[in-house]
Design brief:
CATH topology: Nucleotidyltransferase, domain 5
Number of domains: 1
Strand order of the largest sheet: 3-2-1-6-7
Structural class: alpha/beta
Shape: elongated
Helix content: 25-40%
Low-confidence stretches: none
Order of helices and strands: EEEHEEHEHHEH
CATH architecture: 2-Layer Sandwich
Strand content: 15-25%
Length: 149
């Protein structure tokens, strides 16, 4: 997270598994002024609220012994899907020329999932990645945290 320069026009995407905030610096590197370009919010309740079935079972061959199948983590799958959708959205925006430089701010899991799906056109525009969860911070707080980095 060292040496992040928030120069004029740079985009900052702050995301987690459910929310994404697209910001553009209307100020300069000395006095950043991040303005909200777009906000995305998707509901992603805990797995216990998404999956109601008991884990499946299967026979271990000709014996009467049965084993349980691991329950699907629906919450994690939804986070991964959100990261995929975000990577696709960033590609479309980069292809349209919406931004020239980009800073990604997301928890390590989401950042890792996004990295797997990012198109080369988007990767070339990324100037910094910050592995933190900042979606519950205000825009001025995000400005301060990134400027201090």
């Amino acid at each position: 997270m060292s040496d992040i320069r928030l120069k004029h026009g740079i985009w900052v995407v702050v995301a987690d598994g459910e929310n994404a905030l697209f910001l553009r610096n209307e100020g300069d590197a000395t006095y950043p002024n991040l303005s909200v370009v777009k906000e995305i919010h998707e509901e992603n309740p805990p797995t216990r609220q998404q999956g109601t079935d008991r884990p499946g079972r299967y026979n271990d061959g000709p014996t009467v012994h049965r084993s349980a199948v691991e329950e699907v983590d629906w919450h994690r799958l939804a986070k991964e899907r959100f990261a995929d959708d975000l990577a696709e959205r960033l590609y479309r925006m980069a292809h349209r020329g919406d931004f020239d430089e980009l800073v990604l701010v997301a928890p390590p899991l989401v950042l890792g999932e996004m990295r797997k799906k990012l198109h080369k056109e988007v990767e070339d525009k990324i100037v910094a990645e910050v592995p933190k969860t900042l979606t519950n911070h205000t825009v001025p707080d995000i400005e301060k945290l990134l400027s201090a980095a």
